[in-house]
Hints:
- The complex is a heterotrimer of chains A (304), B (276) and C (447).
- Chain A is mostly helical.
- Helices cover 68% and strands 1% of the residues of chain A.
- Chain A has helices at residues 2-8, 22-50, 67-73, 76-108, 114-126, 129-139, 146-154, 168-175, 182-194, 197-205, 210-221, 223-239, 242-245, 259-268, 272-296, and strands at 53-54, 62-63.
- Chain A is flat.
- Chain C has 447 residues and is α/β, with parallel strands linked by helices.
- Chain C has 18 helices and ten strands.
- Chain C has helices spanning 2-22, 58-71, 88-97, 110-117, 127-132, 134-137, 142-148, 186-193, 207-219, 223-232, 241-256, 267-274, 337-350, 353-363, 374-380, 384-392, 409-424, 430-445, and strands at 43-49, 76-82, 104-106, 167-171, 198-199, 281-284, 309-312, 318-320, 329-331, 398-400.
- In chain C, strands 5-6-4-7 form a four-stranded mixed beta sheet. In chain C, strands 1-2 form a two-stranded parallel ribbon.
- The model of chain C is unreliable at 1-38 (pLDDT under 50).
- Classes of the chains: A mainly alpha (304), B mainly alpha (276), C alpha/beta (447).
- The interface between A and B is large, with 100 and 98 residues.
Amino acid sequence: MNAIRGRVARRPRVSRMQRASYKWIYLFLLPTIVIFVLFYAAPIVQVFLTSFTRWDGFTSPEFNGLRNYINLFTNSAFLQSLKNLFFWCLVAATLHVGFGTLVAFVLYQKPRGWKATRAVFMIPNVISAAAWAMIYRFIFNNDFGVLNNIIRGVNPGFDVQWFYQSPWAFWAVTLTWLFYAVIVTLVVLGDLMNIPQELGEAARLDGATGWQFIRYIQLPLCRSAIGTSVICSLTARIAMYEQISLTTAGGPGNDTMSLSILLVNGILDYRYGYANAVGVVMFLIGLLILFVVNKLFRMDESDY
Amino acid sequence: MKLKKGLTRTFLYVVEAFVIIISAFPILWVIMSAFKTNGEILSDPLALPSSISFDTFAHLFETYNFPVYFLNSLLAAGVSTVVSLLFYSMGAYVIAKFRFPGRRLLYILFTITLLVPSHSKTQPIFSLIMHMGLYDNIWGVTFVYLSMGMAMSIFILKAGFMAVPKTLDEAAIVDGAGFVRVFWRINLPLAKNALTTAGILMFLNNWNEYYFASLLTVSDSQRTLPIALAFFTSEFSYNYTQLFSALTVVILPGIILYALAQEKVQASVATAGIKG
Amino acid sequence: MKKKLIAGILAGSMLAALAGCGGGETDPGAADSPSGSGSGGVIEITIPSYKTGENVGAVFFEPQVERFNQLYEGQYKINLESVPQDGFNDRLKQLAQQNMLPVLVQGGDVDWMANIAFPNGMAYDLSEWLNETPAVKDLLLEDGLEYCTNEDGSIYSLPLATVRPTGFFYNSALWDPQEDLSAMSMDEFLTALGDQKIAFSTAENGWVAALFLTALIAEEDGGVEWLQSGVETKITDFNTPIFINAVARLQELLQNNAAPNSIGAAYADAANSFMSNQAALISNGPWMSTDFAETNSANWSNGFNGADVRASLFPGQVGIANTACFGEWWISASASEEELELAKAFLEFVYSPEELEAFLLAEGGDAPKLEYSDGFKAQQGETQVLADLAADTTEETVFAPCILDMIPASVANSDFGRLLPSLADGTYSPEEFAQWMTDSATAATAE
């Protein structure tokens, strides 16, 4: 095995290209920088600054220190949202990304119909989140929903309001996205296809079994793709809004509350400072996730 | 050995079947429901429609200008995807391959765009589009879509460029290729998988985008498909048949487009790579 | 190479388009901005409205604008641009910030109008015009006029002339009490109801359930006053016997009389359950009457017949309506002289006796200060449910504002509906529900 690993070990960075003029480097970055400044710079600054103010979104904000944050951290809905987010992230990082990766590896074997499967897997992403939520309300409906009618075939007395009863609601919301991991699949599949063919042959010569090959060669080489997937799916959990607001709306009680719903509620009440404090918390959690995942998956390093 | 191979095959097919069922079933159900009456949908949601009638669809096409919406969606999502794919691959390329002052900071800045709640962007974007005189203009929507998916695209593209061996770059430089040429002829074609993935994701995201499209346009001639759908999901609508018909009309073009494009996109990128 | 070419063309054309549109030409967007065109003597404006197309409000509103355009042909013209209801208020807020409000503004978010738009001078003061136009002013509801008049005498939102009390509809094929239901007490009413089913919506904001809860609160001693206290400052304390008792009765109804599938029902589900004979009763506004007309029969099922539907106000002569509220229309402060002329003509037109009568016939309600024509009275009898409601609306009618309008917006939109399922399945007691509402409202208004 060591022989194979040796072949993919990192080469020292070569600096010939480094000497290419900085002019080109910054010219290449320019369009992205312009877009960043136009669309993102102002909102980011505004969110941070106004989170320390009382602001109705129109008249000028009044500084009120940490008031918004104190209100937040004493709000049980907020604390429950953090807890929910933690569990959703846990599920996303393990089951969701795991499933997407599994499908990628399955498709990489190119079984019959793999292209069709890849295309069909994409369909849920072609449908807007609002439409999905509606479809799921029908699927999970107690009386005429698909799921309960199937379960009642086995267990006639079954009676559960998936979206509206503790503790099912949390899992019902989870199921609306859990298996739709096509982004993970695409990203990982892309990386898998980038692995040079010679590696596979070399491994076979060394007598590696299929499982060993996956475990010691393919998975490590896909780590950047898996890291990207983890980041995307975790940040998607932070931003998740329609899947909740159009199904359980955060209920029953606070069972499925999320930061995004709190943020929108703040705007409904014209408390933009408070809403932006929620935004800052979402932002910081996202930053933490980015940092940890980047370190964990060593995403800055090239393998080739 | 043979048994094991058989088991592996079976496993592959089971996973494939599961993926197809969970992805295709809901959409088939939506299309089927579009042909049922309100009462049928409510009383027996799994049953097949009792008769096939295209009346609701006819009504939709008479009342709404779906071909225009389709073209607008295609324009906004298509142009923004192509342009931003170019922009972001340039950015991701230099971040992936070079060391330069500010690299780390810029990468972090581009990445955190993922974390800006879209509600916080509303006001600045609205005001920007107003000042550009692009309110109620599909190009304004297209312009806004350029900014969507920045972080994710840069992640994916950066990983893609990092996977292109540096020896190839060096060889090209030895052959006298300049900066742009190394990017365009060597790296871009070889990062085709990342380009395709990022492109597809950006396109679909923009294709489905509702909020900014509805905020920034008013006229019928500038409308996109998701806005048309919103007319049927308003607060007091209870007509499921019409709703599911509208959903079908809005969703199907996306799926067909995707099915057609997937092969084409991959094929064209592949040939570009060979020529390069 | 081909790809490069395409990308180049696309990028180029895009830049060209950007430059072209930014270059000060009249772009399509300007059609929406307050720019009356004086050419040819016709003053023309375009306003965005959600009461168009598939929206329930379009049935009356679109032809009304058409009638206005015909009446003033060659002089004024209003063009409608249909926008989805979802996001309409957001758009107004953004337009206001850019100082680009349409000449005539069709409502908007109440809190936004009261706290931001009007205090910041975005609206034209209608008080002078109203004084010069007694034909309109004399028709306005007193409560409304009082509410819309500011301390300095200015009036921004044109107060309503009509009140449309919300009651409930019942299916006489399933349940035919043959009595004046609004004259009963709530107890008598519920006894008469027996085990007939009520359609409730508990998802979204729980609209249909909230209406019934409002009626239950209004029946309690001091309930109406308690609700009305929310007009000035939103209600944040729910730990009162009035609320707890009403919630307890709602809980009983949810457990014993709710139509199947009421838990988690959106408005659409509740409406469908009524229109498929699954429930004998549904609370809703008079505008629902159009759903029971023969033209809508394609949406009925399971033997439901719209002709069987009757309507009534709630027991104790309670009609749900907030008379102390903003009206539907206001005029942007940035309107030009010509546009003001048109806008005033339109408002006068909408408040003319003929138009008010037409509105009442189409969507129900009552114009207390209008002397009805004979033709109107005859026609009103033709739509059974509207006639029922009109008959119930008398001097004795008690108007109670809907609870959802009297509590902080986020509580009405999110917290209330979120706990209804738990109230229905008994996980929460009425006292706990009241505490939950109090906590939510406190959090929503914390400084």
